[in-house]
Design a protein that fits this description.
The structure is a single chain. The protein is an alpha+beta fold. The protein is built from five helices and 13 strands. The chain has a ten-stranded antiparallel sheet. A three-stranded antiparallel sheet has the order 1-2-3, with no helix packed on it. Strand 12 and strand 13 form a beta hairpin. It is globular.
Length: 311
């Protein structure tokens, strides 16, 4: 399916701001950008119910404030997904079939932030706050094989396993560096994929809807999070970096297996980090993507005035 920016949101309306950027205002009350034919696009960050309790407390208002942030942090994979829509429009479906992205999160993204996505011709990109041009996250994208693909470990432990019961706590001193963790199996139904694109990403590209839809890049990016939770209890956590290699265009309505290797763990400025190399395979046992995911799995509590950690 070729991606086009013509998805019908029913009762949604189009709004035009003073700069001429088109936003789509959905019934749920938040807005989503409609791309323009340049490499500079505006969007507004959003989150459903930021005040509600979340499994990762850093994505709730009160939980994030306990760690010194101004409010709930938008998840890194979610924010990356907004930018990835531009990548698909710019590079085409070929990027989903055999392309890559390297993204580094630098500053928090909060619900309501007005953001600017700047994609240069060399494949480098930045997502900045519109009000002060502070870079929230940045990276590089490209077609074909990433220059770092060979550095991502490939797991061999592929049969699916049940979630650990009970789940042990993830502790820096006991992180099993070099070992493979439990393989997680997940079914992505057509209905669930559509709801993910519509309700979480507020996606406008048609290729992410329908019975033959492509898997959304944000869904790919967040799978290492769920995979690690399949073996350990941890959190709050903050996504700090991802290297994502698409190896074939994944389709909805299939069952996928997420396997992986714990690559590294370390402490920096009081935060405990973990780096994992993961692979997503489809029902035919074909590799769909490899993702190296870095996250803070134990966040140092910050002073109330601080809000300068990545999300």
């Amino acid at each position: 399916m070729i991606c086009t920016n013509a998805h019908n949101y029913g009762r949604a309306t189009l709004l035009l701001n003073r700069a001429g950027i088109v936003f789509r205002s959905a019934d749920s009350g938040y807005a989503r950008w409609t791309p323009m034919p340049s490499h500079r696009h505006h969007l507004q960050a959003f989150m459903k119910n930021p005040d509600a309790e979340k499994s990762n407390a850093i994505h709730s208002t009160s939980g994030a404030k306990d760690y010194g942030f101004q409010g709930a942090l938008v998840g890194g994979a979610t924010a990356y997904g907004w930018a990835a829509s531009l990548f698909v429009e710019t590079l085409g479906n070929q990027w989903l079939d055999f392309g890559w992205a390297h993204v580094r999160f630098r500053q928090p993204v909060y619900p309501g932030d007005d953001l600017v996505v700047v994609l240069d011709d060399d494949g480098s990109f930045e997502v900045r706050r519109d009000i002060d041009e502070v870079c929230c996250f940045s990276g590089e994208i490209g077609r074909g094989e990433a220059p770092w693909l060979g550095d991502i470990g490939v797991p061999s432990r592929r049969p699916p396993e049940s979630i650990a019961d009970p789940l042990p706590d993830l502790v820096l001193e006991d992180v099993p560096v070099g070992e493979e963790l439990r393989t997680r199996e997940v079914h992505l139904s057509v209905a669930d994929a559509g709801a993910y694109a519509r309700d979480k990403q507020v996606e406008t590209l048609d290729c992410f809807y329908g019975s033959d839809a492509s898997i959304h890049p944000a869904w790919i990016a967040e799978q290492p999070i769920h995979w690690l939770h399949h073996s350990y209890n941890y959190g709050p956590s903050i996504h700090t970096e991802s290297r994502i290699q698409h190896l074939r265009e994944g389709r909805v309505g299939q069952t996928y297996r997420v396997a992986g290797i714990c690559r590294d763990a370390y402490e920096r400025k009081g935060h405990h980090y973990i780096v994992n190399d993961t692979e997503i395979r489809d029902a035919a046992d074909r590799a769909v993507a490899r993702v190296q995911h870095t996250a803070i799995f134990r966040v140092r509590k910050l002073e109330a005035k601080r809000s300068d950690q990545p999300n």
